[in-house]
Structure formats: structure tokens, C-alpha cells
């Protein structure tokens, strides 16, 4: 059985739309402008991503560890206020602003081709169940048999264990499956380390690259994902 697993943020959903909603919630708490709070959130996110690449996140408690790093850029907020901000953002974000171009079409085509679809996603300073709720609000949750998040398995991409968990749950073999994401480090490297094919979404790229020997594809649009997945998993 073949599977196609997907990253969520900046792959299927627009993280900037979610951060804009979070900035509105933060402004409610602090009295600062939404633009100022958005800039602070972006700096906090960059700090967490850097710490993640350097192996500085405590994977036994990903959300709290990430939040402690983020708080250095979010002066005036407490840990629990940050959690409230993202719960509030999940409620107020506009569904039609979330879904990135081509997401529905790509998922429909892969599901129609018989792939089992799953989410494999890291978390930042909100837990996986918040992303589950946002995916549902965006109308995409029905595509996925399984959703696996780093805080639930206590393991961050690119570690192979998070990919293996998703594949076990959908009953698919890694050699017949592909992972799709926007990060060379977390998604592409993680897929290859897990014996899966890897599809990197590099938006704006004019010409797709598909290398069946390396089992790697780089595409410029989600609309190009189904062909890449089918080619790399031998389903054409």
C-alpha cells in the first residue's frame, strides 16, 4: 500500500494567515498594534526554527520548550497567554485565507489514485490538536486518515520515527510512499532518512525537477505534486 504524507504549515495552509490572526489576539492582550505583534511573532517563530535546527528543543515537551524560546521575543506575555493566543487564533482565523493554491486539487487527485493520505507535522508554540482544528476549519481534515504531530510522538522532523509512526497507522510501506513539504531540512531530509520519496514544494520554481534515482522531486506548485508522487513511487 502506498501513502502520501503532508506537512501542514506553508505546505497546505498559509502560516502567515494564522499568524495574522494570532497577532490580532495578542493585540487584544497587550494594546500594541497588530502589525507590531505580527513582527514579534515572526521573530519568535524564526528563533524557534533556528533552535530546532540546532537541536535545542526538548523533544519530550516540544510545545513548552518552543514557547520558552519564543518568550524572549514576546516580552510582556506569559507562557499561558501564548497558549491562549493561538487557541484564539484558531477561532478567529478566516477559513478562506488558510488554504494554499492547489491544495484541494492535489489531495483529491492523490486520494483518487488510491494513496492513503496522512499528516506528518512539527509543532511550534501551539499543540497538534490546534492544527487539527484549523485543518478542519479549512475543510481539509477529511482527506486524512491519520494526523501525526511532533508533540504527540515526542519527536521532531526530520527524525524518521515520526514518519514511521504515520506509515504504520495507515498501513503503508515507506518504499512505496512519499512525503510532501516545504522544508529541505525537516521534510525532504526526513523523508529520505525514512526510506520515503521526498517532494519539496518550492513555490515560484518555474520547472519541476524529478529524479527517480534519488527519489527526490522539487516542484513550484501543489498542482505538480500528484505527478511527482506518482512518478517517484512507481505508480505511473
Secondary-structure class = alpha/beta
Assign an overall shape: globular
State the end-to-end distance: 15 Å
Question: At the fourth CATH level, what is the homologous superfamily of the largest domain?
Answer: HAD superfamily/HAD-like
| Quantity of strands, as a count | 7
Give the domain tally: 2
Q: What is the chain-wise order of helices and strands?
A: EHHHHHEHEHHEHEEEH
* Overall helicity: 40-55%
Indicate the proportion of strand residues: 5-15%
Radius of gyration: 17 Å
Segments where pLDDT lies below 50 for 5+ residues?
Answer: none
- Continuous helix count: 10
Largest sheet: 7 strands, mixed
Order of neighbouring strands in the sheet with most strands: 3-2-1-4-5-7-6
Describe the protein.
The protein has 236 residues and is an alpha/beta fold. The chain folds into two domains: 3-13 and 100-232, 3-Layer(aba) Sandwich (Rossmann fold), CATH 3.40.50; 15-95. The protein is 47% helix and 13% strand. It has helices at 15-30, 34-53, 62-70, 79-92, 103-112, 128-137, 150-153, 160-170, 184-193, 225-232; strands at 3-6, 116-121, 146-149, 178-181, 197-201, 209-211, 216-219. The protein has a seven-stranded mixed β-sheet, sandwiched between helices. The longest helix has 20 residues, at 34-53. It is globular, with a radius of gyration of 17 Å. The two termini are 15 Å apart.
Notable traits:
236 residues, alpha/beta, Rossmann fold, 7-stranded mixed sheet, 10 helices, 13% strand, globular
Amino acid at each position: 500500500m502506498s501513502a502520501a504524507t503532508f506537512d501542514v504549515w506553508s505546505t497546505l495552509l498559509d502560516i502567515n494567515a494564522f499568524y495574522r490572526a494570532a497577532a490580532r489576539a495578542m493585540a487584544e492582550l497587550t494594546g500594541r498594534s497588530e502589525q507590531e505583534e505580527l513582527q514579534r511573532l515572526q521573530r519568535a517563530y524564526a528563533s524557534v526554527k533556528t533552535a530546532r535546527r540546532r537541536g535545542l528543543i526538548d523533544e519530550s515537551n516540544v510545545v513548552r520548550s518552543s514557547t520558552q524560546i519564543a518568550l524572549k521575543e514576546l516580552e510582556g506575555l506569559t507562557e499561558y497567554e501564548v497558549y491562549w493566543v493561538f487557541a484564539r487564533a484558531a477561532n478567529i482565523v478566516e477559513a478562506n485565507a488558510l488554504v494554499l493554491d492547489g491544495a484541494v486539487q492535489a489531495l483529491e487527485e492523490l486520494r483518487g489514485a488510491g494513496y492513503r493520505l496522512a499528516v506528518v507535522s512539527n509543532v511550534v508554540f501551539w499543540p497538534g490538536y490546534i492544527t487539527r482544528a484549523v485543518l478542519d476549519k479549512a475543510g481539509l481534515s477529511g482527506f486524512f486518515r491519520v494526523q501525526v504531530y511532533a508533540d504527540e510522538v515526542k519527536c521532531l522532523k526530520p527524525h524518521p520515527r515520526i514518519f514511521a509512526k504515520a506509515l504504520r497507522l495507515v498501513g503503508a510501506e515507506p518504499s512505496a510512499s512519499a512525503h510532501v513539504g516545504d522544508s529541505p531540512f525537516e521534510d525532504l531530509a526526513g523523508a529520505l532518512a525514512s526510506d520515503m520519496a521526498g517532494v519539496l514544494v518550492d513555490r515560484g520554481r518555474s520547472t519541476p525537477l524529478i529524479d527517480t534515482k534519488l527519489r527526490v522531486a522539487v516542484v513550484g506548485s501543489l498542482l505538480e505534486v500528484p505527478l511527482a508522487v506518482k512518478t517517484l513511487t512507481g505508480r505511473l
